[in-house]
Amino acid sequence: MGTREERTKWFLQDRFGMFIHWGLYSIPARGEWIRGNERMSREHYMTYFDEFDASRYDPKKWASAAKAAGQKYAVLTTKHHDGFCLFDSKLTDFKATNTPAGRDLVREYVDAFRAEGIAVGLYYSIIDWHHEDYPGYGDKAHPDRDNEAVKDKPIDFDRYLEYMHGQVKELLTNYGKIDIMWFDFSYDNMTGEKWKATELIRMIRSIQPDIIIDNRLGGNIRAAEPEEYAGDFFSPEQIIPPGGIVDVNGQSIPWEACITLNDNWGYHSEDKNYKSTKQVIRTMVECISKNGNLLLNVGPDAKGEMTRESLVILDEVGEWMRLNGDSIYGCGKSLLPKPEWGRYTQKGNKLYAHVYDRGIGPIYFQGLKGKINKARLLRDGTELKVEVPWMAEEYSDVDGGAFITLKGAMLPDEMDTVIELELFN
After folding, report:
1. What element of type H or E holds 78?
2. CA of 330: how far to CAs of 71, 282, 335, 349, in Å?
3. Which of 40, 44, 81, 221 could form a disulfide with 35 if both were Cys (CB 3.0 to 4.6 A apart)?
4. For strand 292-298 and strand 16-20, is the pairing parallel, antiparallel, or unpaired?
5. pLDDT for 242-298, tens place per residue?
6. Of 16, 12, 101, 90, residue with least CA distance to 51
7. pLDDT at position 366, please?
8. Among residues 76, 184, 43, which one has the least CA distance to residue 127?
9. In the UniProt record, does the keyword Membrane occur (predicted)?
């Protein structure tokens, strides 16, 4: 089964993944929480079930967009909080095979991404607004949370757990090797052993011993001795932790920030608030400079297509990655403090300077005097000279800094100009 360190080795190498939120909520196109947010009835929601046809769903296109963006793994919502399954579960009728789409959409996803050499992850909501035995009244987010009519409805939570565990077993048994199991999410007293989490984890590892699992079943992944179900990696959402994620002993823990491209996870037709390519690149660099990964989300539309805006951003990020990927893959935090003009990532004796701010005059590398063997512009291999300009000679020894002059008033790449510094061993 191996240790967490062994299991997550590839994950910390790959660094950049694609999150995909897709389901019935793409039809009303007001975000993935619509049924909960709008306290929508089951009957109303079933109208979307009756028209879900996935007519332009082509996961090969998704996979080639992910590959072109430089993403090395992907995670798809096999079931979100609404309980609708994109896979052909034997345990429910509320699934894609019974909609006009009429087929197992997860199988096609798995096959398409695997064919591109992209690691395959499955998202599964442990919350379920459709299942009769999931507590609704008084819950935090359930559509029936204020519905007096169901206040005294008898529920058998163990039956729900049997269903939930059974579906996870289906997902991990029917599609070959799965690389990531991404659970969502624990809250209040719905956490840890409430989900029979230890039993669930043991079942998962018995089927897929090498799989890595996020930390949303509960527990404390930062503890000196985390619970068995505390997960392999930490999953901050819509935030980059200021200091990365470390355990109680200050040791780095594998982590991955999941971030939306606009303001919603699921398709929202009116949400045009897309992040710029520059923001995405710098967010990714920030994650890696703190030993983390970036899981970047797309929300395909009702027909199964990614938005044009998403595809343009993925394409532009991919072009930057093609030229600068060496500063991302296999890299992590540098021992040097964050420089004032940008960030550092590092891999062995290769230090990558991500320069965001051109400033005036030469770029100053604090503490690196006499330590740089070679400096090159990463995107095209251009040699850069490391030298002390005459005007800095009087004070360059103060803290042992090095200088590199970039020609011109503009950076070669205003989004992120990467300088590869080969340090003396």
Report:
1. strand 73-79
2. 13, 17, 16, 13
3. 40
4. parallel
5. 999 999 999 999 999 999 999 999 999 999 999 999 999 999 999 999 999 999 999
6. 101
7. 92
8. 184
9. no
